[in-house]
Amino acid sequence: MVTAYIGVGSNLGNKAQNCLKALEHMAQGSHTSVEARSSLYRTEPVGNKDQDWFVNCVAKIKTPLAPRELLSFLLAIERAMGRERKEKWGPRVIDLDILFYGDMVVEQEGLTIPHPLIQERRFVLVPMAELAPNFLHPVLGKNMAQLLALCPSEGQEVRPLEMG
After folding, report:
1. Which of 37, 42, 95, 121 is the catalytic position?
2. Fewer CB atoms < 10 Å away: N or C end of the chain?
3. In 3D, which of 18, 19, 39 has the Cα closest to residue 158?
4. Does residue 83 carry a catalytic annotation?
5. Does 95 qualify as catalytic in the annotation?
6. How far is CA 29 from the centre of its chain?
């Protein structure tokens, strides 16, 4: 079993419910268990700013699936929830990204682990630092708390989601 961290995000429909539904799908998978999740955060879009804000969190899962199998599983959840890939950084009902897979480094066609832009994205680093502040990035050699401290906040607002 490997511990992996999955980035979860949505900015269409009931964003918080979409994130929680995706976590349910992961928990119900026969080859994945959700061990923990961060708080939900309301986050400013990165890249394409002309869209609604996101809700994001990070899930810590355990799985025997190999990285490519895990990616296929996550893509199947996205499809089941109605994800359509129309434009890069565009609006999405759900987005599931493998952030880390143990301390493995993978560079294959269509799959790069650790996710290549983690150190530039507060919407990933804030929930990662909440969930696993001492987790060491296997390429950059810094932990999540250190990477968060180095990440610029300009144009990347991240605030706890008020559930109510």
Report:
1. 95
2. C
3. 39
4. yes
5. yes
6. 17
pTM of the model: 0.94
Among 92, 121, 122, 159, which one carries the catalytic annotation? 92
Q: Could you confirm whether 52 is annotated as catalytic?
A: no
pLDDT digits (tens, 9 = 90+) for 47-85: 777 889 999 999 999 999 999 999 999 999 999 998 776
Pick from 62, 92, 58: which is nearest to 75 by CA?
Answer: 92
Count the neighbouring beta carbons within 10 Å of the beta carbon of residue 87: 11
Q: For 32-157, where are the E strands, in sequence order?
A: 33-37, 41-43, 54-63, 95-101, 106-108, 111-113
How many whole angstroms separate alpha carbon 76 and alpha carbon 1? 21
Tell me the fold of 2-160.
Alpha-Beta Plaits (3.30.70)
Tell me which residue has tokens 């980035």: 7
Sorted by where each begins, the domain ranges of the chain are 2-160
Do 148 and 120 touch, CB atoms closer than 8 A? no
